[in-house]
Amino acid sequence: MAQISIVDLEVFYRVGVPAAERAQPQRLLLTIGLESDFSAAAKTDSLADTMDYFAVTQRLLKFGEGREWRLVEKLAADIADFILAEFKPPAVTVEVKKFTIPQARCVAVTLSKRRN
Questions:
Q1: Which residue from 21, 45, 56, 74 puts its CA 20 to 30 A from 3's CA?
Q2: Is 90 exceeded by the pLDDT of residue 9?
């Protein structure tokens, strides 16, 4: 199995334990690993034979509209469930990077899930 990676997609979602932190969308970086067998696409050069990563990114850019999360762990799980349900890869890995601790470059949560 191969993987398609979307690395450091910049999104703005409302996430944080205190309400003040969720008051405005904050910058997050998402890295998404989509397990995929793209051997057919490598032969046909057809988008129909692979994962449409542009469509995934467009949906993720809007995923946070009208929503909020207290924990990045919950956000990562919701993103993984959404991708598995909508795009149907065999498995997905989601990393969410948050920039709220000044002494650290970021805090990251990574979650992998397989489709049932």
A1: 74
A2: yes
Q: Are 51 and 4 within 8 A, CB to CB? A: yes
Number of independent structural domains in the chain: 1
Helix, strand, coil shares of the chain, percent, nearest 5, are 35, 35, 30
Is there a contact between 80 and 111 (Cβ–Cβ < 8 Å)?
yes
Those residues with Cβ within 8 angstroms of residue 36's Cβ, 6 or more apart along the chain or in another chain: 1, 2, 3, 4, 50, 51, 89, 90
Distance CA 27, CA 69 (A): 14
Model confidence over 27-81: pLDDT tens digits?
999 999 999 988 898 899 999 888 999 999 999 999 999 999 999 999 999 999 9
Amino acid 38: pLDDT: 87
> Domain with 106 in it: what CATH number?
3.30.1130.10
Domain hosting 68: range is 2-114
CA-atom Rg of the chain in angstroms: 15
